[in-house]
Structures are given as structure tokens and as C-alpha cells.
């Protein structure tokens, strides 16, 4: 905690440099884990057992059952509930991918770099998230008891399905390497989340939606008051020192998933309104440095499906009914509606008409910054092939 706080206090340049190296090491670690899974699957393991797609066939199969006893042994329904449970967990795993938008204010030449970052985020999700899960499904059977043990452990390398894969084939020494990789992932996530949280709180204070004390910055432009508030919330991690900490962690996971989904829905709704406002005001989408594909259908699809997942994400709290998980799964919805309604009533604001939506404030500043950036790049001369490759990586 002290380390990540010190990093964030040193300014965005030092933070960005460190996060670059964190990201590079994470990519190397993830590629290593994926290669390890492929090698295990092809028989390069202590047991010399070529697995192939064995675990995709009965009786294991790629889709396990969930709450089979609670639904009266109806396997098709239990399989669907297993699929839906994975959807809910995937929601939690993907939360944070949207926060690249928070970095726009401090990014160099955002018109060029933000679209690049968005596209690379998509490729990383496809390769590392989807690809990683695909490979895990090849080397770990969905019926393995070790998966349930890992789920109960919740912490350390034992909670990783990659560890389950290495243990099943007798390669237990790799667990220590995976533990080091997990520590690296956690450090990077904590570093980024503290940065995002402090900037979000600072932005709210600038808009008058949070206490003015959080507007304070040091000489490097770091919102130290907001950073200290974020650090205070980091102390919640100490609850995990207790054996019951995993239960509280589950509550926070439910809360974060709900609020994250509501944030996605708000972003998508704002994007739909943004596109409609551009159309009404006669501004072509071709003038934008980045255009989201499949619009407006993609945004409507995301809005509706995220809403469905949010409403039904706590289905297992009814089998049987558990008040604690029910509250943490759904308390975010009335809280979100309540805060939104309170703001609207207290400040007597209304939904801005499409004709009056402000699409130009801040554009001039970005135009000037872009001209300055392009002039600096031209003075530096063209990039070599190695420099272009390094930037891409």
C-alpha cells in the first residue's frame, strides 16, 4: 500500500512509466502461462499425458452444472445456471476495461493515443481473457474437485486454475512461479485502481459533486487529498487476514459487480445520446478520431444485455434465500436510482435536449495540444522500425 501510494504521489509520468513495465511483465507472464497450458495439453508434462480436447467430451464437458441439488437434479437447468454464473463472474473480471476514458485528461495527444489504446484493449481481451479461459478449459476438467477447493481458498496461487492444471499433471513446482505472477498482477491492479479512483474523485470535486477539499493538488498536479481518501479505502484489504474475510470479499465482489454494471449502462446510455446529439446538430461521425463499430445497435445490445445480467446476477441467493448475498447483489440498484433522483430533485436539473447538448467545450484546447504535439514529433524526425515495434508492444 505504501509503495503504490508513493508511486501515485510522484505524478502521472512516473506512474505511467512504472505501469508500462508492469504491463510488459504481465504480458510476458500471461504468454508464459498460455504456452504452459498448450505444452501440458500436448503431453509435455511429467505424466506425458496428451490431453487434447478430452475434457470437452462427456462426462466432463466444457460446461459444468451449478446448484444441481437445489433445482431437483434437473441437469439442463443446472447447466444453464452454471453458464449464467460464469456470465456474472465474467462481468466482474471485465470491469475496469472502460476506465481508459479517465486517462484522456492526462494522455499525450489523446486523439491518436486513446483510439490506439481502445483497439489494443480489445485485442488483449480476445487473446488473454478469452484465449486464457479457452486453454484452461482444455487442461482442467469442469468436474475436478480441485476447482472447488481452489474456489474455497480464494487467495494465493491455490485459487488459480493454472495451479489446478499443473497439480493435475504433477508439475507442482510451477506453483511458486504462478504465485509470483499473481503478486505482479495484484500490484499492477492496485496501482491502476488507486490512480483511477483519485482522478475520479478529483473530477467530481472540480464539478462540484464532491467536497472541495478533494480539488487540492501538489506541484506535480497530483490530487493528493483524493489519493489519501483512496488509500484509506485500501485498508479494507486487512479484513482478509481473518478466516471469515473471504465471505466479506464475496460481498464486495457483488457490490463492485453491480456498481460496475450500472456504470457501464450509464456510459452506454450517454454514448447513445451523444450519437443522437451529433446527428441532430449536423456533425458527422467521420469527424471523430475513433468511431465505435456496429452503432447504434452495438450500444443498445450492450445496454439491454448488461441490464438483464444486473437484474438476474443474484439468482443463486434464492436457492436457498440468503439475505446477506441478496443485499450485496442488489443494494446497488436502489442506491444508484436514489442518488440520481436526489441530485435531479435537489438541483432541479433535467435531461438536456439533443439540440442543446454541448459537444464543443474543450475542443479548442485539444486542437492546440495536438498541434504542439505534432510539431514536436516532426522536430524529432521519423521513427525507426524498431521504435515503431517498441511502441506497438
Automatic annotation (TrEMBL):
Pfam families: AA_permease
Membrane topology category: Multi-pass membrane protein
GO molecular function ontology, one term from the record: amino acid transmembrane transporter activity
Transmembrane domains' residue ranges: 20-40, 77-100, 121-140, 217-239, 251-274, 294-315, 327-346
Listed InterPro entries: AA-permease/SLC12A_dom (IPR004841), APC_YAT (IPR050524)
Location of this chain's protein in the cell: Membrane
Any single Gene Ontology cellular-component annotation: membrane
Keywords, ordered alphabetically: Membrane, Transmembrane, Transmembrane helix
Amino acid permease/ SLC12A domain mapped to chain residues: 1-350
Native source species: Sphaerobolus stellatus (strain SS14)
The protein, known as: Amino acid permease/ SLC12A domain-containing protein
Amino acid at each position: 500500500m505504501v509503495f503504490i501510494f508513493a508511486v501515485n504521489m510522484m505524478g502521472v509520468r512516473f506512474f505511467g512509466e512504472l505501469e508500462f513495465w508492469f504491463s510488459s511483465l504481465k504480458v510476458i507472464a500471461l504468454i508464459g502461462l498460455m504456452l504452459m497450458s498448450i505444452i501440458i495439453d500436448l503431453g509435455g508434462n511429467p505424466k506425458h499425458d496428451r490431453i487434447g480436447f478430452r475434457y470437452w467430451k462427456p462426462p466432463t464437458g466444457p460446461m459444468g452444472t451449478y446448484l444441481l441439488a437445489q433445482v431437483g437434479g434437473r441437469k439442463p437447468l443446472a447447466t444453464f445456471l452454471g453458464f449464467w454464473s460464469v456470465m456474472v463472474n465474467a462481468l466482474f473480471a471485465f470491469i475496469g476495461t472502460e476506465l481508459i476514458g479517465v486517462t484522456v485528461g492526462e494522455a499525450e495527444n489523446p486523439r491518436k493515443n486513446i483510439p490506439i489504446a481502445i483497439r489494443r484493449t480489445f485485442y488483449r481481451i480476445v487473446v488473454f481473457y478469452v484465449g486464457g479461459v479457452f486453454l484452461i478449459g482444455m487442461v482442467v476438467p469442469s468436474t475436478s474437485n480441485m476447482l472447488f477447493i481452489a474456489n474455497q481458498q480464494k487467495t494465493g496461487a491455490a485459487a488459480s486454475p493454472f495451479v489446478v492444471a499443473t497439480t493435475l499433471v504433477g508439475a507442482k513446482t510451477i506453483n511458486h512461479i504462478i504465485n509470483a505472477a499473481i503478486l505482479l498482477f495484484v500490484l499492477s491492479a492496485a496501482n491502476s485502481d488507486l490512480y483511477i479512483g483519485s482522478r475520479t474523485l478529483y473530477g467530481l470535486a472540480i464539478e462540484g459533486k464532491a467536497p472541495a477539499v478533494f480539488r487540492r493538488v501538489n506541484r506535480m498536479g497530483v490530487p493528493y487529498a483524493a489519493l489519501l481518501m483512496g488509500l484509506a479505502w485500501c485498508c479494507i484489504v486487512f479484513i482478509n487476514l481473518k478466516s471469515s474475510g473471504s465471505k466479506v470479499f464475496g460481498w464486495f465482489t457483488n457490490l463492485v459487480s453491480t456498481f460496475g454494471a450500472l456504470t457501464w449502462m450509464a456510459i452506454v446510455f450517454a454514448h447513445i445520446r451523444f450519437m443522437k446529439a451529433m446527428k441532430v446538430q449536423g456533425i458527422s461521425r467521420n469527424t471523430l478520431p475513433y468511431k465505435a463499430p456496429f452503432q447504434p445497435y452495438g450500444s443498445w445490445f450492450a445496454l439491454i444485455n448488461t441490464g438483464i445480467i444486473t437484474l438476474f446476477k443474484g439468482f443463486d441467493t434464492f436457492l436457498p434465500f440468503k439475505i446477506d448475498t441478496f443485499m450485496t447483489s442488489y443494494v446497488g440498484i436502489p442506491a444508484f436510482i436514489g442518488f440520481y433522483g436526489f441530485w435531479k430533485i435537489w438541483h432541479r436539473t433535467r435531461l438536456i435536449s439533443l439540440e442543446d447538448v454541448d459537444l464543443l467545450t474543450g475542443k479548442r484546447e485539444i486542437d492546440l495540444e495536438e498541434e504542439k504535439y505534432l510539431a514536436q514529433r516532426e522536430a524529432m524526425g521519423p521513427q525507426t522500425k524498431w521504435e515503431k515495434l517498441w511502441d506497438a508492444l
